[in-house]
Amino acid sequence: MKTISVVLPCLNEAQNLPLLIPQIIKSIPKKYNYEIILVNDGSSDNTTTMIELLARKNKNIKGIIFYKRFGHQPALKAGIENTTGSAVITMDSDFQHPPSLIPKLIKLWEKGYDLVSAQKTEDHSSGKLMRFGRKIGYFIWQKVSGGLLIPGVSDFRIMSREISLYLKENPEKEIFIRGLTQLVAKNPTSIKYKVGKRKFGKTSYTLSLATNLFINGFISFSTFPLRSAWVLGIIFFLIIGIYLIFDIVVTLLKGKRLIEGYITIVLLSVVLNGILLFYLGIIGEYLRVIFKEAKNRPPHLIVKKINC
Q1: CA dihedral of residues 39, 134, 179, 141 (deg, nearest 10)
Q2: pLDDT for 204-228, tens place per residue?
Q3: What is the rounded CA–CA span in Å between residue 145 and residue 133?
Q4: pTM of the complete model beyond 0.85
Q5: Domain Glycosyltransferase 2-like spans what residues (predicted)?
Q6: Residue 189 and residue 166: Cα distance in Å, rounded?
Q7: Pseudo-torsion of CA 118, 122, 125, 131, nearest 10°?
Q8: Residue 240, C-beta contacts closer than 8 angstroms, at least 6 positions apart
Q9: Which helix or strand (DSSP H or E) is residue 170 part of?
Q10: What pLDDT digit, counting tens, does each position of 26-62 carry?
Q11: Residue 239 host element (H or E)
Q12: Are strands 33-40 and 87-90 parallel, antiparallel or unpaired?
């Protein structure tokens, strides 16, 4: 009998877990064995105690306890590294990823899709400004990644054993799982869903985390910012060259310049310096990732495993 693995990163989800886990178990077809891996990412509530309680009652429920908070992606990676199933489902533990979608994900996987991603159609879990920012971020991601990063797709998915093994063996520290799964998938598809309502607690998805996730996704799957620098340089070189030629011609014919004084020099200096600083910032982000990868530090510290 095949096994379905379910990985859930947890951050202050002590009240949600005892309600969510039974729904997940109920959603997995009886013809499959299952294992549910709960990864506590440095929660400040009783999440660890709740994981231990659930694991004592059901040996198919496993726990991984981090020493401190290391982030959503490292928590996902740690959970995936401890899976044994023929397919792996990843989802959040706050009810925003509805367990009722699990049977549909499994059916599509059974049809031969090695990656089935859940794509948001409606999301009222955050404010209008955050939703607007996400739309812009997804749009940019899709353009710079050549369609690899799909709008509305987060970390609610089912993946084949082959893809989970690829993630296990991937040595990246600044890992971006939603991109890597799409990158390696041979036969991917998606299914649309409405984001569920969080039952207890507050979201940990702050503006700073969203910004950091956007930057990681941006630079992990595109060299477009780096390659666009020389294109922009040529464009500005041509514009400035044409302007100078035109300015010289007008000066010779009419005896005066297009713009008097130092305004031209000041404007050009401001624009060009602004562009230089912008691209230095982009290079800095790429160097930040290279620095972290070169250090090769462990992405997390596990202090306890339960039923693993």
Answers
A1: -160
A2: 666 667 677 777 777 777 777 787 8
A3: 18
A4: no
A5: 5-162
A6: 18
A7: 100
A8: 268
A9: none
A10: 999 999 999 999 999 999 999 999 999 999 999 999 9
A11: helix 224-254
A12: unpaired
Cα-Cα end-to-end distance for the chain: 19
Amino acid making up residue 142: Q
CB atoms within 10 A of CB 168: 12
89 pairs with which residues across the strands? 6, 158
8 A C-beta contact, residue 47 and residue 116? no
Q: Any idea what DSSP says for residue 146? A: T
- Residue type present at position 104: K
Phi, psi of 119 (to 5 degrees): -115, 125
75, 173 Cβ separation under 8 angstroms = no
C-alpha distances in angstroms, 277 versus 48, 269, 281, 283? 45, 12, 6, 10
SS3 of the chain: helix, strand, coil, percent, to 5: 50, 20, 30
Task: Specify whether the CB–CB gap between 42 and 12 falls below 8 A.
Answer: no
